[in-house]
Amino acid sequence: MRARRFPEREDMTRRMAGFMAHLRLNGWPAGIGESADALRALSVIDATDRGEVREALRAVCASGAERHRRFDDLFDAYWHSDGRARQRPTDTSARRKPPAQMSDLLGSLPSSARGGVPDAPEAAQDGEAEGGGTGKLVASRLDALRRTDMRHFSTPEEIAAAEAVALRLARALRDRRSRRLRRARAGSTLDLRRMARRSIAHGGEPLELLRRKRPDRPVNIVALCDVSGSMSLYARIFLAFLRGLMSADSRTDVFLFHTRLVRISDVLRDGNGARALEKLTLMANGFGGGTQIGLNLKRFNDQYARQAVNGRTVLLILSDGYDTGAPEAIGTELQRLKRRGGRIVWLNPLKDWAGYEPVARGMAAALPHLDLFAAANTLDALAALEPQLHRI
Amino acid sequence: MTWKTLKGDLARLGYVASDDLAMALHLSVTLGKPLLLEGAAGVGKTELAKVLSTLLDTRLIRLQCYEGIDASAAIYEWNYQRQLLSIRAGDGAAGEDAEDRIFSEKYLLARPLLQAIREERAPVLLLDEVDRADEEFEAYLLELLSDFQVTIPELGTIRATARPHVILTANGTRDLSDALRRRCLYSYVDYPDRDTETAILKAHMPGIEGRLAAQIVGVVQALRKEELEKKPGVAEMLDWAAAIAGLGINDLADDPVTLQATLVCLLKTRADRDAVPLEVQERLVGKAA
């Protein structure tokens, strides 16, 4: 490639705008602010030296580790090819684009059904009242139903019951104490700043005691559901459960895994619940086969965890722990996840079976990293989680 | 000042910067924009701020971020005890007067960000591990980073007398918001390559023998390629080199058992210690020689 001489200054503004447009085409957030900074940067370096211009523009435009690495390609594409912008896949869309079969599935849905985010119910606004609840589901004639192992579930009522339990659990999980203090009518610490101010009126006597407390902050839930062969009996009901989780909070993220990892949050938000469930069950059935839990956790760690998991995340893993991959991988990956600061809850449908021991080697490797390991084979078992989730 | 002289000046102070880092720092200083440094722990992000303050002969003001940090810890706080005392001891002057008195600079406790803005001579302001703070704190930072001003309701807006040189560091605890990124210049600091690392070692230990330096750097570089929980950074490498020099070791292959004991300088978790037994260590040293 013939190295082209750098353009003259009067030409520069126009060329720089072109470069910014080139970056935008590739999905970078390059606006007027960046253009202005880039031109200012060129004025303090030797703008005829390609190497210097490259490093200067990198400092101005590349705003993350990934972009920092890719900058050279984009820079060369623009300045070496005489301004012809070569279009490349953007880094963000490449990462977020769902796998092929997901897009097929999405494509088959009417567009109006996509992207609808259910609002959190009105009651969801008041974390305090919710948090003080007794943590019990209303006993009902569904009693028998709720003790049945969920393998035998299939009717719409049963599925609706599963969604209801999930909704309840999601609310139990939702709030976590903030570390900041806000003013409040009643609280554990005094708000000295406001007291000092009020006491002026009383000649310096702090007559009114004003208080602060730590408000509740929402947690976000990320669920990973195993849909391998050994779990297929539970797949349908777990999907209903996940749908219930989703409807409590629009930030909840849900993934399915078997031999691959698929993000299904958007499908679950399909307005037509029955249809979404049907599609997903079909998908899940197609999946049935060996699972590689460790490998999938690794994928999750590599691709999604950075955005999805932080200190306010509760990660729900629904799996029986039967794994065809290396069990050590599960331990390692859970440890990595744990370092992101969230809490990990593993729901295992086999746990309550008579005589069950976590002998599946994967499960044994996972145990030390879990905040909560619980049964999930009956609705009662799920409902009983609520007070425990309040605690973690 | 050009970026090349800056790079040379940094090297003189013992900080060997890569081209893109030197350029980013140069632009940050000349354009007055904050510089965001990302990279693994121990690659010298914090060190850069310290060296810069030495170079510019100015004060280094450091704010260590943590989860839950808020305005009263980062920007300012009123001295309530003194305020209350002052009101009570007040010579009958109540109302407006008293209010003016207790909400004056005298009763203001300046925290790092406000201090940085009020310095006469532009200081280096280091916001360390900004990704540990939560999103709300980032929002506080935005006003500071774009306009270099702080608003105190009782006093009004305080503008920077001299624009501080702001350096933010992050190592990926969570993703920073785009709004914050856009206000900063950016550089990703990677582990140095072999030559750079040798140069760093020689800058810190001028007396070190060439062969030993090559061995030390070789082993550390090879260690970073192993599956470790915490890869040894540059600071660890320097500690290790100091330990080796202190023990009077001239060739790493001489005494494997003693060398094994010195690895505590590089490997900081139990799993990592177990991952490098004597055989692995000998393989690494053999390759580095």
Proportion in helices of chain A: 40-55%
| Overall radius of gyration of chain B | 24 Å
CATH class of the largest domain in chain B: Alpha Beta
Gyration radius of chain A, in Å:
27 Å
Q: Could you list the spans of chain A in which at least 5 consecutive residues all have pLDDT below 50?
A: 83-145
Number of strands of chain B: 9
Query: N-to-C terminal Cα separation of chain B, in Å?
Result: 41 Å
Describe the main β-sheet of chain A briefly. 6 strands, mixed
What is the residue-mean pLDDT of chain B, rounded to a whole number? 87
Describe the largest sheet of chain B.
5 strands, parallel
Describe it for me?
The complex is a heterodimer of chains A (392) and B (289). Chain A has 392 residues and is an alpha/beta fold. Chain A has three domains: 9-94; 98-175 and 217-391, 3-Layer(aba) Sandwich (Rossmann fold), CATH 3.40.50; 181-214, no CATH class. Helix content of chain A is 48%, strand content 11%. Chain A has a six-stranded mixed sheet with strand order 8-7-6-9-10-11, sandwiched between helices. A three-stranded antiparallel sheet of chain A has the order 2-4-3, with no helix packed on it. Chain A has a two-stranded antiparallel sheet with strand order 1-5. In chain A, helix 16 links the parallel strand 9 (313-318) and strand 10. The model of chain A is unreliable at 83-145 (pLDDT under 50). With 289 residues, chain B is α/β, with parallel strands linked by helices. Chain B has three domains: 3-69 and 112-188, P-loop containing nucleotide triphosphate hydrolases (Rossmann fold), CATH 3.40.50; 76-110, no CATH class; 194-282. Chain B is built from 15 helices and nine strands. Chain B has helices at 3-12, 19-31, 45-56, 71-74, 80-88, 96-102, 112-118, 135-147, 178-182, 194-204, 210-225, 234-246, 256-262, 270-275, 278-288; strands at residues 35-38, 60-64, 76-78, 108-110, 124-128, 149-152, 156-159, 165-170, 185-188. A five-stranded parallel sheet of chain B has the order 2-5-8-1-9, sandwiched between helices. In chain B, a hairpin with a 3-residue loop joins strand 6 (149-152) and strand 7 (156-159). In chain B, helix 1 (3-12) crosses helix 2, helix 10 packs across helix 12 and helix 11 packs across helix 15. Chain B is elongated, with a radius of gyration of 24 Å. The mean pLDDT of chain B is 87. Chains A and B meet through helix 2, helix 3, helix 4 and helix 10 of A and helix 2, strand 1, helix 5, helix 6 and helix 9 of B.
